[in-house]
Structures are given as structure tokens and as C-alpha cells.
Amino acid sequence: MRKKTLIVVALSVLIAGHAFSEWRIDVGADVPWGIGAVVSDLGGSSQTNVNVLQNFVFLVPEGNFLYQFPIGPIKLGAGVRAFSLVLESVAWPNAFAEVNLGPVAIDLNLGGGIFFLFGLYNNIATSSLVIPDLSAYFKLGKSFRIGGGGIMFYDMDSSTRGSIVPYSIYLAAKFSFTF
Predict the structure, then answer these.
(1) How many angstroms separate the CA atoms of 113 and 92, rounded?
(2) CA of 140: how far to CAs of 16, 36, 94, 127, in Å?
(3) Burial class of residue 107 (count of CB atoms within 10 Å of its CB; 0-12, 13-18, 19+)
């Protein structure tokens, strides 16, 4: 009897989760504001900034295709995230958490592991590269958001022998649609 009750409760939780979940598509563009790298060896670390953006401003189109589960003001989900540099684009699996604080949304994304390249060079590659991204947006209207954040590219294999961790600080605007 207990086993049947446990199975019914487990199935109810799974079904209820799908009843409140939704698909989400984010489409927008990022403008890198600063690019740099943290360089560390076994003895210490230093930070190096690259100032190539001093004379150039460029847009990097971004897209997310996600399946999310709202839990009060927090949304959790997973999907695919993609960036494009026009001639070459890259996509990877991505997990995210979003906290909505009134007109402000704070997003934490974590992805990597498998990369899908398409454009001039088409390939599926695996790597130990992990890509965390923390951003904050002001919500303007129902679907438009404007804000900024920071993204890093961390190689899990290089932690024991020193590492170079590239990062970018960016400004962003995107449309976020749910259905």
C-alpha cells in the first residue's frame, strides 16, 4: 500500500511540474564593454585587460531556447544557448536560474561541455570548458529587457597547472518570450 501511495505522489509531482512549466525564447544582442583574462600560475595570480574595445563597438547576437519551471519569484530551467559572430556561430547546453525582484531580473547561466559549431566550420566538439554567466536586467514592458553582465570561460582541466580565464563584461538588450 505504501509503495502505491509513493508512486502516485511521485507521478503527481512530475505531472504538476509540467503543468506549470513553459518554453522560453530569449533573442538579443550583447555589446562587449571590456575583455580581459585572469592569469594564474601555481604561485599567484594577476589580471590582464585587453583594450581592443577602445576603438571598436560590435554587437554579438545571442539566443536562448529554454524549458523553465517557475517556483515563485525564481525560475529554473535548461536548454541551449547560442552566440553568433555572423560567419561562425556556437551553441551549447545551458542551465539557468533567474530571480525576479520586481522590475529587475538577475540571471545565472552555466553551460558548456558540448559545443555545436555552425557556419564556415561545422563540427560538434566536446571540451572541459565551463561557461558561467551572471547578468542583471531591467524589465521594460512585458518582454523587453536591458542590462548587462559578465561571462567567463573556465577550463576545468587547467586548474592544477595554472590557468588563463578569459572574461568579458557586456551590455545587453533582449526580448524574452514565454509560451
Answers:
(1) 7
(2) 31, 30, 25, 37
(3) buried
